[in-house]
Each structure stands twice: as C-alpha cells, then as structure tokens.
Design brief:
- 46% of the residues lie in helices and 14% in strands.
- The strands form two sheets. Strands 1-3-2-4-5 form a five-stranded mixed beta sheet. Strands 6-8-7-9-10 form a five-stranded mixed beta sheet.
- Helix 3 packs across helix 5.
- The protein is elongated, with a radius of gyration of 29 Å.
C-alpha cells in the first residue's frame, strides 16, 4: 500500500506540474526552448497509459537536472496543445525529443525509458552532470564484469534476482528485495544480489532467463544455480536463506533468539541446572564435547558453567543485563552479533 500511495503522489505531482519538470504550452514553449540551453521534452497525453508508467521515472530525470543550469527537462500535453504536437510531428504518446543547446531543431529520442537511461543520454549529449541521489543499497549489483567473481566464489551462497528495469513485477518486488539485502548485509558468505538481465543479456541467456523477475540461488557447492520458486514475501526469502546459508537472521538484520545455540551442548545445560551437586562432572563432560565440535560458541557453554559455579546462579541474570546494556550502545555489527549469541546462550541457563 505504501508503494502504491507513493506512486499516486508522483502521478499527482507530475500532472499538476508541482515538480522539477517544467510544463510547456503554446504560450511559453519558444521562451523556454530557444537554444539557450539543452532541452529534453516529453510530449504526452493525460489519458495515455504508457505516459503514466513513465511519469515516476521522468520525475526522477527532472530532479537529476534541477541544479544543472544549462539543461531543461520539460513536458507538453500534446493532446491539449495539438499545435505543438503537430509542429514537432508527434504521432504517438509519449514522444521524447532532445533539443541541443544552440538549436531549436529536435532530435528524436529512441532509447530506454528508465530514469537512468534518459539521464545517461542527456549527460552524454551535454557533458554529464545530472545524477540521481539514490539511497545506499545493501543489495549487490552484478554485471558481466563482476558476476563470476562474486557468484562463482566457492565461499559464498548467493541469491540472484534477474530483473528488467521496465518490468512491473520487478518494481513490485524491489522494496522487499532491498529489505532482504539489509537483513543479510552483515553475512559476508550469504549474498543478496541482482543483475539487470535486460542490460546484460548474455548473462540472461547463460542461465536461461526468459521472464522477469527470475530468481536463482547459487550455493557454495553448486554454481550451476537452482531456481527459487518460493514465496515473494520478506519472510519467505528469510526463511529460505536461513535454511540454505545456515544463518539465523530476522527482518532488519538482527539475529534470532536461537542464533549461537549449539544443539550438542543443550543437554548439558539441562543437566547443569537440575543436578546442582554434580555440576563438576557435567562441566567435565561438556568440556570434552565442546573440544570435539567445530563451533566457537560451544566453549562458551563451558565458560558459563564455570562462572556460575564460581560466582553463583545470579551470574546468569547479571551477565544477561550487562550484555543488554552493551547491545543498546554503539557496537560494530560483528560485536553485536557476538554479544547477541552469548546472551541467547545465557538465557538457556536461566532458572
């Protein structure tokens, strides 16, 4: 609903002219498009579906050049201003034309319809100063230059979305996929990535991509890739990646309550809590098991047991509270994960 609301607002601003895109008509066209600056003009019709689809991207183009003095981004309601439409040979909507600086004779624009496509074109024509201030993304962008170095890395599990910028389903998935990238940003071996398959068609062909979005998972041990056919909600993706990558993330990037727990050590916790007189024996058995496991947190179970014997049962509560205070502070992602896992283990010792 939030995405739909944003789209509606952009439409409203676009048609109303309350934007960085200048509205032109017969009374002011020659005043603005007079050769003093380069001009990129959309000839549209308010009822045109393709024009409405282009509106959000065109608004971004306007914003990209709002502080560039020698570039004008404008639009003309060519259905309401038919004299202008006829003057420039407009026969369909939207028609996009570029007027070079120093000229009032336009060049037809036949390139892509994404904001990036149009901005790139204008920059190439004018010397290149327009840009979109996009928020940073935690999703890894792939192309022919870096695809193999990331996806084929035997130390990484990689989820890849093959998308097309014009694809409606891809646009709908985009905010969910951004959240997924944020969730796994601190998991260096579990990568959330995407590739513009329309702009990197050799990669699309290589993996048999015929529709968008196509999502494939490339585990460490299978770089041929497997099709992802699960649900498209954030929870669906997180459940899938946690299972495949052996991670314990929740939406937003925090660790779940089971992160850090070691199954082979859990039975010693119950014995330690219930057999207070035999705790030394439990610690001895737990220590042997921890040494045999390839898990750095297994030894923490033993450490907690020894601390309880030394300081009493209140150690668990005190340490949980201390770690809680630490976690509410400014920690690196690595430290935050470590303290969260310790606290999860400590909570299993609560009486």
């Amino acid at each position: 609903m939030k995405g739909l609301f944003t789209l509606c607002v952009l439409f409203a601003l676009y048609w109303a002219g309350n934007s960085e895109v200048v509205d032109l008509d017969s009374s002011n066209f020659d005043q603005y498009v007079n050769g003093d600056k380069a001009a990129f003009v959309e000839f549209y019709a308010p009822w045109c579906g393709h024009c409405k689809n282009l509106a959000p991207a065109y608004e971004e183009v306007g914003k990209a050049f709002e502080n560039v003095d020698d570039v004008l981004v404008a639009k003309v309601d060519a259905d309401g201003q038919r004299d202008l439409g006829s003057r420039f040979g407009v026969k369909g909507f939207p028609t996009l034309k570029f007027f070079p600086k120093g000229s009032t004779d336009p060049e037809d624009y036949s390139g892509g319809r994404t904001a990036d496509d149009i901005i790139k074109y204008i920059n190439e024509k004018t010397g290149g100063r327009g840009r979109i201030n996009k928020p940073p993304s935690d999703v890894t962008d792939l192309d022919v230059g870096n695809f193999d170095s990331i996806v084929m890395d035997a130390d990484k599990d990689v989820l890849v979305e093959f998308y097309a910028p014009w694809c409606g389903h891809c646009k709908k998935l985009a905010p969910v996929y951004e959240q997924l990238g944020q969730t796994y940003k601190d998991e260096p071996s579990c990568v959330v990535a995407r590739v513009d398959a329309d702009g990197n068609r050799d990669l699309a062909t290589r993996y048999g991509v015929s529709g968008y979005p196509t999502i494939k998972f490339f585990p460490k041990d299978n770089k041929d890739g497997v099709d992802y056919s699960g649900g498209r909600s954030l929870d669906d993706f997180i459940k899938y990646l946690n299972e495949k990558c052996g991670t314990d993330r929740v939406a937003g990037g925090k660790l779940s309550a089971k992160a850090g727990l070691v199954d082979d050590m859990q039975n010693f916790v119950e014995k330690f809590k219930s057999e207070e007189d035999g705790r030394e024996n439990v610690i001895s058995e737990a220590e042997k098991t921890a040494e045999s496991l390839d898990n750095s947190f297994a030894s923490y179970y033993v450490k907690v047991m020894k601390k309880v014997v030394d300081k009493g049962n209140d150690f668990v509560k005190t340490e949980i509270e201390r770690l809680g205070r630490m976690l509410s502070g400014d920690l690196s992602a690595k430290k935050s994960d470590e303290f969260t896992k310790r606290r999860n283990i400590l909570k299993k010792f609560e009486l």
